[in-house]
Amino acid sequence: MADLLVDTGMLKELDSALALIVDTLDAAGGMSRSTAHACGDGELAGVLIDFADDWEDTREDMLDAVRSISDAVHLVSDGFDKLDAELLRTLAGLANG
Question: Is the pTM of this model over 0.70?
Fold first, then answer.
């Protein structure tokens, strides 16, 4: 029978890194549009606003994707932690029984 080894510590580190990415993307909302008015040229400001609007759409899509991945990693990590604890209780019961 093969052993199943899951590094839940690594999964928790990944979950923390993904949470940081989510926080960073979430905090970046609206920042790119606000700089357009400081450029001094109306045409350039229009181009920057168009870019900013496209970036907002992309940022929101990325935010949704990273949140989904983070949620999945969190569920997998918790699931293996619970399974490990349950197996340990079962083995302890067999050893005592």
Answer: yes
